[in-house]
């Protein structure tokens, strides 16, 4: 049940209908080759490292149970989290939707006087459209994650949760760098080391000069008020420690109750996402570092409404590992742009429609073959196929035309204009005839059809 006043998700959660966007993607054979190669490689790595753990299924069950506890008691965990954050000197802000979150961050950045900010890779900030909102107040946001940087310089959109530039091969990346990276060597080759070195030089100058950073968080620990970012490159850690102002934008479902719970997720996440036993960089901060001001913006943007549906809320367990994307045969052929939302692939097909309301994303629950592989690989055991069926049901129910809904629409049309309504009421005498001769099976079988009066109230009133 969704109560009035629950905020619907806004920002980058909707786009062109999936069938249209997918048709366009399917016509691009280079895209399909890039996707098949990249997802095939990550899939094989994941299968290897997951196969090493005899207790993988127990870990999955633990991850699901911890997240279910978070969702069942979200109000209490959030209050505890806020208290722990503020007691250690972090300023906490609450945002109902994307607009409100953007406004809060824009005001905080404006107060520092900065014209540029550096960013740690964050899905939440892409979801709310933060870079665009900052651009409107004249602030340039620099992505420091390599794949996000490629997408940003290419004036492109992310196609994957973890590898936003998965749809690009290295020759295309070289062309993007040559075209859009300031000061880049025009003879830059497509050798991966040369590309990484060019990005490193570009970013180093930003790390040393920009004084405001914006991050997301993979996890927030309710009992200690700690935030956790896991990454592969170490660029995020530079953003978290060097700038004097740190603003973290965090979805309200990102919490775990206890410090010890991280033990489960720091095993599940790297194995599921990049096929590694441990992720290379795990940054944890509890309050600001010395000389730093830190803010946390807790964002709803449709999450409370999602929580209200008992059959759909498990989508909020998602830890954004992208294993379901890398395994999905539909995603492998269409890529992420076809989903029209920050969250592509199987998780996007269930999460985005719930965050926005299914009526604003009616094609996404059908963007799946229901093969079930997404459920098999999900480290927190989200039953995406069952959820897809449930959401399809909601889409169909929202669209269904019944005799009653048709009659109500006709009545609304008639009553929306006083003269039209008056003329129709006068036609009531036809109703007297119809009531005797028009069969209404099902309705009139058990009821007498009321006979309209000879004279309407208006006619009687005017004749006085
Ligand atoms: S739904 Fe599961 S597999 Fe997909 S991104 Fe989320 S946690 Fe990973």
SSE topology sketch:
Layout: H1 18-26, H2 29-51, H3 56-72, H4 74-87, E1 91-95, H5 98-112, E2 116-119, H6 123-128, H7 130-136, E3 140-143, H8 146-153, H9 170-180, H10 192-209, E4 212-215, E5 219-221, E6 226-231, H11 235-241, E7 245-251, E8 255-256, H12 262-273, E9 281-285, E10 293-299, H13 303-307, H14 323-327, H15 329-334, H16 345-356, H17 373-377, H18 384-399, H19 403-415, H20 418-426, H21 428-437, H22 457-462
Parallel strand pairs: 1-10, 2-3, 2-4, 4-7, 5-8, 7-10
Antiparallel strand pairs: 5-6, 6-9
Helix pairs in contact: 3-12, 9-10, 16-18
Bound molecules: iron/sulfur cluster.
Iron/sulfur cluster (SF4) binds next to helix 14.
Description:
This protein has helices at residues 18-26, 29-51, 56-72, 74-87, 98-112, 123-128, 130-136, 146-153, 170-180, 192-209, 235-241, 262-273, 303-307, 323-327, 329-334, 345-356, 373-377, 384-399, 403-415, 418-426, 428-437, 457-462, and strands spanning 91-95, 116-119, 140-143, 212-215, 219-221, 226-231, 245-251, 255-256, 281-285, 293-299. Helix content is 50%, strand content 10%. The strands form 2 sheets. The chain has a 6-stranded parallel beta sheet, sandwiched between helices. The protein has a 4-stranded mixed beta sheet with strand order 8-5-6-9. The chain is α/β, with parallel strands linked by helices and 464 residues long. Helix 3 packs across helix 12, helix 9 (170-180) packs parallel to helix 10 (192-209) and helix 16 (345-356) crosses helix 18 (384-399). The structure holds iron/sulfur cluster (SF4). Residues 272, 318-324, 347, 377-380, 382 line the site of iron/sulfur cluster.
């Amino acid at each position: 049940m969704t109560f009035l006043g629950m905020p619907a998700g806004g920002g980058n959660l909707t786009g062109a209908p999936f069938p249209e966007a997918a048709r366009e993607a399917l016509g691009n054979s280079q895209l399909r080759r890039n996707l098949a190669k990249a997802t095939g490689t990550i899939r094989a790595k994941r299968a290897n490292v997951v196969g090493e753990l005899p207790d993988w299924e127990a870990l999955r069950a633990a991850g699901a149970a911890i997240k279910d506890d978070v969702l069942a008691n979200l109000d209490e965990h959030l209050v505890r989290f806020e208290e722990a954050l503020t007691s250690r000197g972090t300023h906490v802000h609450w945002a109902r939707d994307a607009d409100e979150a953007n406004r809060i961050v824009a005001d905080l950045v404006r107060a520092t006087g900065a014209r540029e900010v550096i960013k740690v890779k964050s899905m939440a900030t892409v979801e709310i459209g933060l870079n665009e909102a900052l651009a409107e107040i004249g602030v340039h946001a620099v992505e420091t994650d390599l794949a996000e940087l490629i997408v940003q310089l290419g004036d492109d959109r992310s196609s994957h949760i973890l590898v936003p530039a998965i749809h690009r091969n290295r020759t295309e990346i070289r062309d993007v760098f040559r075209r859009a990276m300031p000061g880049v060597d025009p003879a830059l080759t497509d050798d991966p080391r040369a590309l990484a070195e060019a990005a490193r030089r570009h970013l180093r100058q930003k790390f040393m000069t920009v004084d405001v950073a914006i991050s997301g968080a993979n996890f927030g620990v309710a009992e200690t008020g700690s935030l956790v970012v896991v990454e592969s490159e170490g660029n995020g850690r530079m953003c978290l420690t060097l700038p004097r102002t740190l603003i973290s934008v965090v979805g309200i479902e990102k919490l775990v109750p206890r410090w010890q719970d991280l033990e489960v997720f720091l095993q599940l996440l790297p194995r599921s996402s990049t096929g590694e036993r441990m992720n290379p960089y795990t940054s944890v901060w509890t309050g600001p570092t010395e000389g730093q001001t830190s803010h946390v913006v807790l964002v709803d943007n449709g999450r409370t409404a999602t929580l209200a549906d008992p059959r759909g809320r498990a989508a909020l367990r998602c830890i954004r590992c992208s294993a379901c994307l890398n395994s999905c045969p539909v995603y492998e052929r269409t890529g992420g742009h076809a989903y029209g939302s920050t969250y592509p692939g199987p998780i996007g097909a269930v999460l985005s429609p719930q965050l926005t309301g299914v009526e604003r994303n009616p094609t996404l629950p059908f963007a799946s073959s229901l093969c079930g592989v997404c459920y098999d690989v999900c480290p927190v055991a989200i039953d995406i196929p069952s959820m897809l069926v449930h959401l399809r049901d909601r889409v169909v129910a929202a669209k269904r035309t019944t005799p009653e809904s048709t009659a109500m629409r006709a009545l609304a049309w008639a009553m929306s204009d006083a003269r039209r309504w008056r003329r129709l009421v006068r036609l009531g005498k036809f109703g007297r005839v119809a009531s005797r001769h028009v069969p209404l099976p099902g309705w009139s079988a058990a009821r007498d059809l009321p006979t309209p009066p000879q004279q309407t109230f208006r006619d009687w009133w005017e004749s006085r």
